Structure formats: C-alpha cells, structure tokens
Amino acid sequence: MSEKGTSVVIVGGGVTGLSAAWWLARSGVEVTVVEKGIVGFEASGRNGGGCTHYQSPLFHEEQRLWPEMDELLGYPTEYQRGRIIFQVDPRKERFHEGLSLRLPKGYDWEVLIPDDVRALVPLAGDNVVSGVRFHFGGHANPQRTAQAYAWAAQDLGVKILQHTAVRGITAAGGRVTGIETAGGTIGCDALVVAAGPQTGKLMAMLGIDLPMAPARAEMIVTEPLPMMPFTGVDGNGLYGRQTLRGNLAYGGGPHEWFDDVGLEDAPPKPSGSVTRSLARRVAELLPKAAHARVIRSWAGVVENTPDGRPVIERLSAPDNVTVATMSSVGFGLSPASGHAIRDLVIDGACSFADLSKLSLKRFDGLRGDWRVHLNWLPPEPVGAVAAGA
Amino acid sequence: MSQVTLPPPDRASIAGKFLPPQEHVPLIVVGAGTAGCAAAIEAAKAGVSVMLVDENPVSAGLVGMNVPLYFGGRATNAVQTPERLVERVLEANPALAEAFELGVDVRLSTSVWGAWVKGPGLNHLGAGLAGLADEEKSWMVGFDRLIVAAGARDLNFTFAGSDQPGVMGAQGFHTLLAGYDAFAGRRLAIVGSGDLALQTAETALAAGLDVAALVEVRDAPQGPANRVAALAEKGVAIVTGHVPLEARGNAEGVAGLVVVDRGDADRRQEIACDTVVMAVGAVPVIELLDVLGARREMAPGRGGHVPMSDEGGATSLEAVFVAGDCARLGQDAAASGRRAARAALASLGKASSVPAAARDASGPAETNGQPEGDGLAYQLDWARAMLATGGEEVLACICEDVTRGDLLGVKPPRYLGWRSNAIARRDLVTLAGDGPVNQDQIKRLTRACMGPCQARRCREQVALMMAIGAGEPAESVPLAGYRAPVRPLPLSVLADWQESAEMDEGWNVWFGIATQWIGYEDIGTTREAEQLAAGMPY
Ligand SMILES: Cc1cc2nc3c(=O)[nH]c(=O)nc-3n(C[C@H](O)[C@H](O)[C@H](O)COP(=O)(O)OP(=O)(O)OC[C@H]3O[C@@H](n4cnc5c(N)ncnc54)[C@H](O)[C@@H]3O)c2cc1C
Fold it and tell me: In what residue span(s) does the Rhodanese domain sit (chain A) (predicted)?
C-alpha cells in the first residue's frame, strides 16, 4: 500500500477487531488496528468469558479453535473446557428439555442429578434441583485473551494505534480510501469496522444504516475461594465462572439502555442497581460461598441489533468494507469471527460457514421506531421518596 | 416490509425493577472524623436532618483484612468486643457526642460502600443513592446532598517479610492505639521522618510505648529539627539515608527490622522491634468520589489523586461535596467540614444559621498531615531506593503474590505457570511503547492490586514502580479506577433479600432477546416460530 497507509485498517481493538487483525496477519496481510482507548478496555475486557454459543453459525469453529488458542497465540487465555448449568428454583427442574431442542447434534452433554452437581461444584448447596453438563464450550479470561490477541498480532507485524479515535472515513470512486483521526488520515485498501457500540455511527459515515442500540451490563467478583473441580458454572439467572485464581465472577439480570454512546466515550461504570441482586443470586446458586466477600464490580456497554443477531458482512458498496458487530455475544465467538472477517476481506466469502442470514439486508424496511416498539429505551427516573422531616 | 423477525418487547431491562430506597435524607455525611463531624454539626444547627455514617469501629474480620486501614495484625482481643470499642470510639471523639445531642442520625460501624447520582447509564435514579452496610446487611439510602469526608489512608511500601504481623500503616496504628485502645505492640520502628512519622513517634511515646528508631531515605530528617531532636533525646535513633530491607520475624510476627544504606547494600543494621509503622505519607480516600464519577486531578500538593473541588468543597457533581483530608491532605479539617456543609445547604436553598467564622477561610493549616516534602518526588525516592536495595523478588502486591519483578516484566500470574519466549520479550518498556502505561491494564495482566484488601497496601507503590519501570513521570500514571463495593462485603450481606417482584419476574440471564438464541439453521424455518413460542430456554 501507499507510504502513508496500510493494506487493511481495522477500527476497534476489541476481541473482534484484534482477532481479525491476527488472522489477517497470519495470511501475510499488512494491518493497522486503530483503537480509541486501550485494547480490550471496553466490552471485550469486561465480559463473562463464556465460549458456548450453539446458536451461532460460527459455533463449530468456536469449538474447534478454543482448545488451541493458547498455543496458536503464544500467550495465555485461561481457556477451560466444559460448562455446567444448574438450577435452584424448583420451577426450573426440567429446564434441560427446552435446552435439548437447541443443542446441535454431535456435541456431548448429559443431565446431572443434584448429587452430581455437588460433586463437581462443591460450593453448591442442598437447594440444587437439576443440572446439565456440556462436554464442550467453556470459558476464558477476557482481559488476558484480548491482550493475547493484541500481542500475537503485533508479533506478526500488526500495528496497533491506541488512544486514537476514528472520526471520519474517506472515500473516492465508490471505495473507502482511508480513515481520519486527530493525528491525520491513514490510507488503506480495505477497511474493517469492528467498533462495538460505535459501529453504527461509523457505518452512518458511509451512509449505511446499521440499526443498533447500546446498553450497560454488569458483573461482580468475590475474593478468591478454593478451586472447585469444575469452574464453568452457570445457573439461577447468572452466567460466570470461577477464575483460575479462585474468584467467583458473575453477571446477569437487568441491563440499562443508553440513548446513545459518543464516538469517543469513556467506558461505563457499574450502576449499583443490579449489584445487590447479583450478590443475592450468587449466594443462592452457591450457598457455601455466601460468606465470600465481593471485592469489585464492573460494567460494560454492549450493542444489540434489533433481532439480537450479529452482522458480519463484506459490503457490496463500498465493496472494500467489512463490518462486524456481534450483537452482545462476541467474546466466545472471537476466534471464529476473526477467521470469518479474514476470509471476507481476502476472499470475499467465509470459507467455513454460511453467514448469509447475518447480512444487513434483513433490516431493509425496518420500522423507524423500532427502539420504541421493542421497548429498548432508557428508563424513566424513579420518584424519590419525600425527604423525612 | 422488513424480513427480520423481531423479538417481543423488552421486559428484562432495569426499567421499573429498581425500588426507590425506603430511607431518604437531605444530607448524608460520610466519615465522622474531624471534617465530617464539623460538617454534620454545622448542618444540624441549620435545622437540616443529617445522617452521619462512619465505619468505625470496624469488625475484627476487617481489621484482619487490613480494611479500611493497614492494621498489620497487631490488634489486641479488644477488637473482638464491638460494644467496648463503640464506647471507646465515642470517648476518643467528643464531637460525636455533640452531633448526637443536635439530633444527627449517627450510624457507627456502618460503611458506605458505593454512591451514585443520576447520569448516563444511571437514568433511573431519581435522587442520589448511597449503599450502606453493617455486619449483617446492606441497604440503600437516598440523598439530596452528600458530603464525603472519608479522610486518608496509609501510603505503603512493601519489603521482604512485610507480609507478617507487625508491619502496619501510621493511620492503622493511630486508630488501633487512640481510636480503639487495642494496639498490641510494644516497640516500634517508624519508617519516615516527616510530620506524620514524628507525630506517630510522639503519640507512641506518650502512650508509654518504646520507639526504637525513625528510618529516613533522604540524608536529613524531613520534619522540624526541634521535634526530631526531642525524639533523639528520648533515645529514638534517627537513621537517615536508609530504607527497610527486611522484617525478621518469629511465630508472633515481626521481631526486628533490617535497614540498609540506600547507596551501599552491604551497610545494614537491625533494629529490634515488634512493630514497623509505615509513616512515609498518607493517601486521600477518594474511592466513593471515583465511584460517583466526580472529576479528579493529580495534585501532589494535595496528596495525589484528589477530586476537583472549589473552596466550599463543591465537586463536579451538583449533589456531592468534599471536606477534610480526602479533598486535600493537611487542610484544617473542621473548617473545611463547616464550609462544605454551608455550601451543600446553600445549594439546597438553605442558609446556615451560624455566620461563617473568619477562621474557616480556606487554605492549608499549620497542623498535621501535610503531604511530605515535594510530594511524588519524595515517594519516588523511597520506591527507587527500595527497589535498588531490596530487588525484584519482593512482593509488590501481597494479596495476589505479585513481585516487583513480575510487575516490571508484566508477567502473567504465577498460578498459570505460563512460560513462553513471546511473553519473555514483553515488559513495561514494550508496553509503554504501545502508549502510556495504565494501572488498570497492569492490574488485569499481572493481578497486582486485585486482592481482597482492595489494593490498600499496594496501589500507590505499584503506580510508582510502573513509572520507574516504564520511564514515565509518576504523575502521569492514571489512577486505577475504584469500583463498588469499596469495602469487601460478604455476598450474603451485599445481597438484596427484599428486591422488587418486578426484579425477580423480569430477571434474565442476558438481554432476554428471544430471537438471539434461535439456532442459525432454524432461522427462517418453522422451527424458529416454535422456539419463539416456547420462550427462552432457561
Ligand atoms: C458484562 C458483560 C458480559 C458479557 N458476557 C459475555 C460472555 O460471557 N460471552 C460472550 O461471548 N460475550 C459476552 N459479552 C459480550 C462481549 O463482551 C462483546 O460482544 C464483545 O466483547 C464484543 O467485542 P468487539 O470487539 O466486537 O467490541 P468491543 O469490545 O466493544 O470493542 C470495540 C472497540 O472499538 C473501539 N472503538 C469504538 N469506536 C471507535 C472509534 N471511533 N475509533 C477507534 N476505536 C473505536 C472501542 O474503544 C472498543 O475497544 C458480555 C458483555 C458484557 C458487557
């Protein structure tokens, strides 16, 4: 590419953009990642670390790649295989029936009786009603993984520009020619937009409507506890894991919709309105950990498209742009989403999965008031109780 | 027409789920030290109902965890009997009695572990919201105005053996001795020689304890010569140009402190003592202000990272004011408390009944606790000398077992047992090549500052070590963000056992977007409709 540019510019140093950079660099492509803050500092470093997404067309690739990622990247991700989900609410005793409708063939799983759950999850209590165990899926450490992608990509020559926000996109002759930052323009042959909640705004610069709405989700984490034989444990309305250090990190429950997020906004803070309800549910799920002290919480902003499904697509016009929003479920899929983006950028089509149903086209003619229709709106303030005399 | 299948309207968002708190007060004051008591009294005199919250006396469990101060495992059994400690705390602080008399709602042994005001992402908040907790439960209190007078905590530097009982901070020492009458040591070595160290030594001697030595990294004592001389006369050794190298110990903890010449690692001496008090400096307690999102700045002359505030203690947040050491180390705490109360009342449209005394004009007092010497430069002198003499094997973060070397090398935590050439090539210098070093990033990569003491023993020294390792100015290392709960609370205590029915009914593991979880193969088939009709899988 030209002296002032690079072959591919990727906007967004989250796991999607970083994985794409690493995959492209593995194919010898010259890549620059432009990130408004620090790599993995948004949703990519603030999530539950779950890697079990059987609804996705990228699922098989997700499952194939995770066990190899540490070795492929050369840096640790803390990936752990397997998942247990168990319930403590008697109304959910038969939840595995609903699940069985959805699990793809060829992946091993079984129903667990309460004693089995307690053997694998010693912090569980007498209140277990039923569980399932997946011999696939798993979890990893999001922060370590995001940095692992970044370092592995750098090792292959990728340039990562941190603290550099993309403010504009330049185009000529029906093609994107570069991006604009406070520090000047960076030319490119192809552009990948993987900017999380800001992806819609960036696409709008190209005159393309990518409907999405941002919302905040939160997690809490306890002090370290003795390691359980099995660490990937969900249930009782929670997702999470015991970290390899021993902490319990759990999320779930109400999100708060934002009107909008700015192109250069700082990451969000936890709200305090879900923290205590999360603590309650962790104490119910793992009663033998009820004494464990919560030492932190955090929040991340994630974007959702109107049907909650990703958009991963190489556009037809301008045809040198590939866009990827994972619609709030993108950490676990990142080894595969990066591979898909690499294929789209280099070959124009994904080599290992059909992605046609994830095209932007499905939103053509979407009602203009879709956020109101879906009730995806920031809450009204709750009235304050009158001050006491 | 659009071909997209839309999910049903969202019932899983926070809207309508979070109950307004049952209790609401016009003014909450956090911290019943000098500044907080003065603020509460001033407001009460103006006829405003005030809730004054203080975590003291803290439980034995927290004393053991070094929260909120660095108590260092040198407490007597007295910390096991909270009733006695309450009496003692009241005796030690006469202003509390006055506050009680004026009708202030004083809550002792109660911590404020979080506070929030309406803003982006917190649109559902009507008024300000504070999270409170005692040993048994947590609850929320609404407020119109909040005055944070959370004081200061200890600046700490670790050295070999400093993770054993007997190494503590000056604030922790002072609280155990004067606040709780529960200090278990006999003979002290004090690290530092500025105002804080001198005051620590004077207090200890007055209480009948032995003070073996003051240890100072620079060539001359930092505090007033007459006070230093007075201590020397009482037999306190003044050891300058030295830093702690190692605490020697036995089954009961510290038995001696080995100090080393900062320029000559072979010149050492051992000071017999059962307690080492770190009195190099203090750190403004800004946790709640950071959780609130008040704007802050790095101001070494005010103690480091402090909230941006005006004369009256107004912060960038309309409802939040600051007073005392957490706003500016060493200012006249009582006067700043009164100013903050008046400013908070004025912002509510209420005038103080008492005219402002001339003595309440702002500015640093000539009293205790000012930042020592030239602020961060002084702290860096300690950090550099201790790194040079103690080496890289010393723990920088005790809770998480992270050595200085791990930190400088940006090494993954030891429990991963990770070794690779790729990681060996990475360190703080390479990281700095990608952009200014950031303590939150280092935290995530090395786990330094991630432990149960919530980084109270390591936050500042890790930032200093990062500056040294990356060759960047210490002032430029961004603060690692504070997150609620700013006190470590058991799950069962933090839990909301009385949440709304709407919270329970509308709770979903993720966003509750039914279309999101339909298998890709099924999209657009009859199976999609079946699954949507069946609802979420769990
Ligand atoms: C609490 C929580 C729990 C979650 N749990 C899970 C889970 O268990 N499993 C799972 O798979 N997913 C989970 N997710 C979702 C997952 O984190 C995200 O889907 C995923 O991280 C998205 O990655 P990304 O790279 O696409 O976007 P992001 O992580 O949002 O990254 C986008 C990047 O683009 C940058 N950027 C934005 N605008 C610009 C600009 N103008 N210029 C330059 N850079 C810009 C941002 O700074 C950001 O770093 C969770 C999310 C949250 C918040």
Answer: 12-50
